[in-house]
Please model this.
Amino acid sequence: MLEVKGLFKSFGGVAAISDVNIDFPTGSLTAIIGPNGAGKSTFFNLISGGLIPDKGSVTFNGESLIGRSRAQIIDAGIGRAFQVARIFPTLTVEESLLGAVTAHRRRAQNITHRFPLPEMRDRTHEVAEMLGLVEKLGVTSANLSHGDQKLLDIALALVLDPKVLLLDEPTAGMGPDERWRMIERVHELWEREKLTLIFIEHDMDIVFKIAPKISVLCYGRLLAEGTPDEIRTNPAVIEAYLGTSHAEAAV
Amino acid sequence: MLSTRPNLARDISIAAVALIVLLLLPYVWPSRMMNDLVIRVSAFALFATSLNLLVGYTGMVSFGHGMFFGFGAYAFGLSMQRLGVSIPTAILITIVSSALLGLVVGAISIRLKDIYFSFITLAFQMLLYSTVIAWVPLTGGDQGLMGGIPRPPFLGIDLSIESHRYAFAVTIMVVGLLILRQIVESPFGYTLRMIRDNTERATFLGINVFRAKLTAFVIAGVFGSLGGMVMALFVSGAYPEFVNWTMSGEGIFMIMLGGLSTFIGPAAGALILSLLNDVITRGTEHHGLFLGAVILLFALGLRKGVTDFIADWFRTRREASTRSGN
Model:
């Protein structure tokens, strides 16, 4: 279980995350929603070692993640993908994934063998298959479509065998059809890999459809938590974020 | 695709053929000038290729790589002159001491990014240059290491004989490039490419960027110093020009001329720049003007190095033929 308790982070006196407490039970699927600037990406950074919190604790299966290096946090089993796909533009999809596995298995400094080490291939191909990137293995990452770049970004996190996967807006910048395809893949991934999956999403239709549990952040605070129905009808959430249309839809 | 990735056996065969050709060259075409050119290019090829490990593969633009070239020349020359050791021992001293220099300079410089990294490497080089100029009793100051470097025979090799010197230089160059080639095609070489492409993402994959960059910096320093050592053997001395910032500039020119996206590009650039230097110096006193014009022509005309240009041309042709094949 991933537990976040009393988390605080401020930038230049402005609180980006303040007193946030959320539990993510093992194997759960949680959506994090909230208006722009609510602190969602900051929250992810605090969990994955991108930022160090001012106060509070993040523990995974009882062990604290605070103050650990990014490598240690990855080893603990926390993986993440990014809002804007962060890839290796000049490497092919296969080279990128193989490189990630190599790094993960502590062989990044190896100079006596040829790249790739044969034992790295299995996991790479498994993940490529899972995300539908097999056809694209030989393609230089910079030449991939936007959607495939996002998939590669997720794949890069996935080859590290995470137990918890953080996805920052997996559908950002996609058209409606592409969004649904992407989210179906993510959902499939969650079921198959038995991951604890946490994703940030702006599209409420998607969130209400696939997330059993939703956490709403607003101005750095946890405004509400609950099932889609609870969130849809929560007056504070409606006022701060949803407006009336989703509430009406629920009725 | 990975299936066509160059394997070690193939690289060794290519290196062996190149070495045999270079060793036979003096017999096919006996010429003092040719020998001199090949030895100088051997020194510069090691220097430029090692610099490209940083510039091309890791995205670290060092403006101070000449410090290793000069350091290698002085370390080797001084070991031979002052310590009276054998040549293999002097080579070992050169390798170990330049690795230490790389470790210290790298550990400080790598903390800075982009242009600041470039500047601090340049600053370290200027520091070394000033030291060489000022420490007259040890280095001979602006006169350089005079009096010749002793070249006692070892293992049947006598470097005071020109043909031995030639064979020694090309062997060190070919073996050195083969090792560098192995390094850039190893898992570590791909770690460097990942750092170059997206440093931030590399850290989120658990790559220790500092350690990888420092390793690359030390390796590059060692092979750069071996280039300086070959040069010191050739001129039987070491001179402040070797350690001056213009040396680093020439390394960058070689990479630009030859191309940074192919492994052999910088070595090709070393050959091109040396040829240009020879031809232009013979034809005119306004040597810098013409050299500058040629480099401008490359930069503005091709917008890449020669080997980049050739590699792109082949790639375009291959892609065109696959398309028409479909």
Notes: Chain B has a mean pLDDT of 90. Residues 21 and 28 of chain B are 10 Å apart (CA to CA).
